[in-house]
# Entry
Amino acid sequence: MRLARPLTAGIAAPMLVLALAACGSGGGTGGDGDGDATIKIAYQKFGNFTQADELFKDVKAEYEDENPDVTIELVPIEASQNDYFTKLALMQRSPSTAPDLMYEDTFMIKSDVEAGYLLPLDDYLAEWDEWDQFVDQAKQAGLGDDGKTYGVPMGTDTRGLWFNKDVLAKAGLPEDWAPTTWDELLEAARAIKKADPEVIPLNVYSGKPMGEASSMQGFEMLLYGTGGTLYDADESKWVVGSQEFVDSLEFIQTIYTEGLAPTPQQALDPNVGNTVSAEWLPQGKLGIALDGSWMPGTWLENGTAPWPEWTEVMGTAPMPTQEGQEPGAVSMSGGWTMAVGAGTKNPEVAFDVLTHALDKEHALSFAIENSQIAVRSDVAEEPSYSEANPTVPFFSELVSVTQFRPATSDYAQISNAIQVAMESVMTGQQTPQEAAEVYDQAVVDQVGEENTTEG
# Structure
């Protein structure tokens, strides 16, 4: 077997792009005994979330053409986020199904390292001189607790408010609308409801079906806007008994009890994210969406729901802090990486496929087609990158106020407890205070009382 591409290729140093949050594979597929290798790549493909599909299809065609001894087997997992993580974990438990390469959310890296699913990449990265092109802060997202690198970043994101200018105009709101407090955001939602009761005023993802979208770009966008936090990094303890946690749930309660959000039935549909981007916003059925920088990827010419008018119809604004306190706005950042399975029988080949997929050419295409914020400095400097999406400057500037999920292996369980709390409030099963108390107990049960601190 030969490798058409060496493990090194080269360029230079990083510029500021954006920081990543700490936002699988067990056994590998091996050679068939005659020197050939099969590299299995697992990734999420669900509704409008097809970010990796075209990339890996291109990589398969190109790499197999250059390396006739290598077969790349694509394993698209058609599942919502929580189900994707579950199915990926199940695959990793058996050598016969475990992928060699996988699309790994940054927040799952530490728990998957702890489970023994991922291969440390430091020795390979030391021989890949394109690694210098990746922004230093972005590299942090791929680290395990042992300080080793287990994931190579593909792109990152920030979050803010998207709004349909036509819907807001009917409600008497300006084209350059930008709320400075939660109250101003709620006032705008109420104005939209009054102007047209058929329009959904505001979408904030909530509940278990939307998984991490509920926890991160729903709840945590609120919590960090109060000045609160999930995790005290100085003490290395989870925060319980937090009034800020209750305040955030009260916001969820307000938008659902006042009819300012989708109905619980709509919100608890695991396809609601696709509906927001492909239907509600383009069709003027939704006024404001708390959502991510990647949204235009759906609307571009090669997206899953092309919408040429989006640049004229859609506006953006930062998500304000609760009372307008400093820094005035809040965002959350995450992203995806490529990781190598710990049990792969062909680690050198798997890593070579990874470097092919994340070289400058493919990274630029991936960033443009999926409205990602670039994590390679040479990609960020390309004129075609900034020209492809007029919202890139806005979302890139949110780096100055962005927050990150706790970089701990038990975050995934805490995130699930957040989703349960949100769902119980949005469906009226519990008050915010009651749901917060249940959450606090779930945290204590998960990490131990000695690893918690009062907010």
